[in-house]
Design brief:
alpha/beta; single chain; six-stranded mixed sheet; binds adenosine monophosphate; binds magnesium ion
Length: 402
Amino acid sequence: MISVAEAEEIVLSRVRSYGIEEVTLSAAIGRVLMEDIRADRPLPPYDRVTMDGIAILYSSFDAGQRVYEIADIQAAGMPQKSLNDSSQCMEVMTGAILPADADTVIRYEDLTIHEGKVKINIETVKYKQNVHRLGSDRVLGEILVPSARIISGAEANICATVGKATVKVAKLPQVMVISTGDELVPIVEQPLPHQVRRSNVYALQTALQQSGINCDTAHLNDDIEELHGALSEYCASYDVLILSGGVSMGKYDYIPEILQQLGVEQLFHKVRQRPGKPFWFGEKSDGPVVFALPGNPVSSFACLHRYVYPWLFRSIGMSRTELFAELGAPISFTKDLTYFAQVRLSWDRGRLIATPVEGNGSGDLANLSDADAFLEIPRGRDLYDPGEIFRIYPYRPLTLIS
Ligand code: AMP
Ligand code: MG
């Protein structure tokens, strides 16, 4: 049986790329930008007034003038006017273009205005103050956002200001999430005593959606014909298949065999880990990458975060840093397996603390809601002490952890 590190290496060796597509800016949030965004004008594009007040020619103030007649008003959105007489001033508003022949802005707070005349009440005025100079942020043609950046509100602002109504982003793969098992009924049905509702697909679909990846979903019974027919179809029409269930040692666990009959090469089956030991991974050369996860809800959830996510994110050009947390209480685990402990996370002045919330094993899906992440406890020891640092795989944004 291979180790978690070996499994990860094999999974990541099958990273793919799905090309580029152009989408509207509002649809691009969270996607990976696949072009450089350049300044189509200098930034700012004109000498921009940054305070409501008056614009003057600095040399007049420097020569001792303190009282000015108001020549005109330059509001935001008005074409540029000119301060023809340097003994006068122009009222100006934030966002307006600085009037020609003026160079310095004094805010209303530092003025007294009476019967069309303005008195400046301060003695310290700096040349060109309160003016955001043309091109002082970025020059024409400069790269404002380089390719490969993930688009957040900051990038949307920049794309919008340079008039990019559509942007090129990394294309997402077509993902199909499939639950399997005769005991599983649709969630709107009342299960019989020997049945449970199909919850895994919702767990996997929701987690994927949280990361900006849409998927289709399906359910298949433990029936060779049905599995063969449907999986053959899905192999032809999806880039990624994520299955749950049917990969263990049970009499009706047909998935590995059927996938191989359909030409999906098995790259590994079973990983030295808990939960999720029966995890199967394969790839069809002219078809999808296939993650066949064990059906137990905690197992499939852990495998999604530990293996499927890193593969998916790399395949869409996202590089994500590894996350670590500090163990907050001792853990004893004596099996020779990597242990994905369920942990509650908390922040302690910049330190991320992971406190174990054990639950009743891989079937205890209710426990997942009491935790925030899986903490990867390596093999080789029986006891792990508070203060030790391990990798974490959170399933909630770290900003939402209290
Ligand atoms: P399997 O991996 O098919 O042997 O399933 C292991 C356990 O997980 C069984 O108790 C299944 O009933 C349960 N299980 C499998 N798939 C799902 C699912 N989609 N939703 C809820 N439980 C599931
Ligand atoms: Mg099953």
